[in-house]
Amino acid sequence: MTEETLHSRRWERKHPVRGSAPSIQPGLLRHIVKTSWRHQLALVGLTVSVFLLEVVPLELQRRILNNLVKHRPFSTIILLGGTYLGAVMTQGGIKLGLNVYRSWVGERAKRDLRERIRRWTRTPSSLPQPVDTQGTVVAMMVSEVEPVGNFIGASVSEPLLQAGILATVISYIFHLDVWMGAAALAIFLPQLIFVPLMQRAMNRRTRGRVSLLRRIGAGTLRANGDPLSATRQIERVFRLNMAIFELKFTLNFLMNLCSHLQVITALLLGGWWVLHDQLEIGGVVAFISGLGRLNDPWGDLVNYLRDLSVNAVKYNLITDACHDAATVRNTVPAGKDPATAAARS
């Protein structure tokens, strides 16, 4: 007996049919909670450990530099360096486990979704399957499930990790110096305005693109499809993609500009306070390192919101197509063409 057969039988025992295909939850977030909440809780625990350790290397950098400037015994520097290495290895090991676990949850979600799609869309062997349904099923099984499954694996831990890193590093910066932290935060705040606005514009275009690609895929398989309409749809996809790229790269430019303005602020204010003996040089270096760690998690949070919108649309299209296929399958009398029944419904 093959491994695939064993898995299929285990899946059938876990999801008994009871007269219908296994249910597909109507929303992506509801599906995540229903199918993987235990694993998501475990991922949350690993995620908290990772972002709490984020500031340890920053503090150790500060102490090493300050001890060097003050000509402390070199044995103290060696001890701090060893502690730094241990902290980095510990955080890296936990992050490795987190990423592998995320990938496993994502692959498990893909396998489960493909099995559910197969059972929802299958028709009796005596009935022909309409070409529109064939194209939809192929698109769902091959391409649309892939990004949705990947998103499910990181759906809870990713925003928690990036938000946790932001909160931890910002708190540490304020701990170093309240005024420098306030200045850096003031430069960071404009991103809270323009990022959501630009992200919302990208989300609208992404939803339109996904729907258009679904219609193009179905029309390609239809023998009597209108070629002029298909050409217009392809051109529309091109324009939507270019609009998304323009917004995306403009957003990246503005975020990078804000990041560099934060560093300039740290150098000017930090240098001034060092000259007036109000701050140690190690504090300035740790502050700049902390600012450098803000850009990546903020960018990852922006990408997460983008992925959430895209994959929610794809998941809704999957569930709608599955329910439509099941409706056609259950209403087609024996010997009738499902394509005719689908048109009538």
Description of the molecule:
This protein has a single domain (27-118, 134-344), classed as ABC transporter transmembrane region fold (Up-down Bundle), CATH 1.20.1560.10. The relative contact order is 0.14. α3 packs antiparallel against α4, α6 (157-176) packs antiparallel against α10 (281-331) and α10 (281-331) packs across α11. It has helices spanning 3-14, 28-52, 56-69, 74-121, 131-154, 157-176, 178-188, 191-221, 227-275, 281-331, 338-344. The chain is elongated, with a radius of gyration of 27 Å. It is mainly alpha-helical and 345 residues long.
Secondary-structure topology with pairs:
Layout: H1 3-14, H2 28-52, H3 56-69, H4 74-121, H5 131-154, H6 157-176, H7 178-188, H8 191-221, H9 227-275, H10 281-331, H11 338-344
Helix pairs in contact: 2-4, 2-6, 3-4, 3-10, 4-5, 5-8, 5-10, 6-7, 6-10, 7-9, 8-9, 8-10, 9-10, 10-11
Outline of the structure:
The chain is mainly α and 345 residues long. Helices cover 85% and strands 0% of the residues.
